[in-house]
Prior knowledge:
By secondary structure, the protein is mostly beta strands. The protein has one helix and ten strands; from the N terminus they run αββββββββββ.
Amino acid sequence: MIVRQLHEAENSDRKVVSEGWDSTRLLLKNDNMGFSFHITTIYKDAQLPLHYQNHLESVFCVSGEGSVEDLATGVVHPITPGTIYILDKNDKHILRATQEMKMACVFNPPLHGKEVHNAQGAYELEAEVITD
């Protein structure tokens, strides 16, 4: 059984901070569950062009407001608490926050721990590992 506290993980190397967001990685590849689970904060006024070429992602909005734009169709979907969006086709998208958003995110394959977005807005498959 794995038990972790969000507030403890936020004060450890499990919290990764980058431009426009931070992510606390509660479950990672080395936990051997087949997916990773993160609580991610998207900062107010952030606009993040993303394209997870190597991962599928599901994102559930816990709090805040914003939108996700599907770049293949141009459709903009509002995000409010209770909204889930699923990137089931490695979808190119832009995530925008009109308020700070707290998101629960699941990645498959799982992240190693220290990933940040590359120039294409993706995570690499191999990255620095968190070992605790």
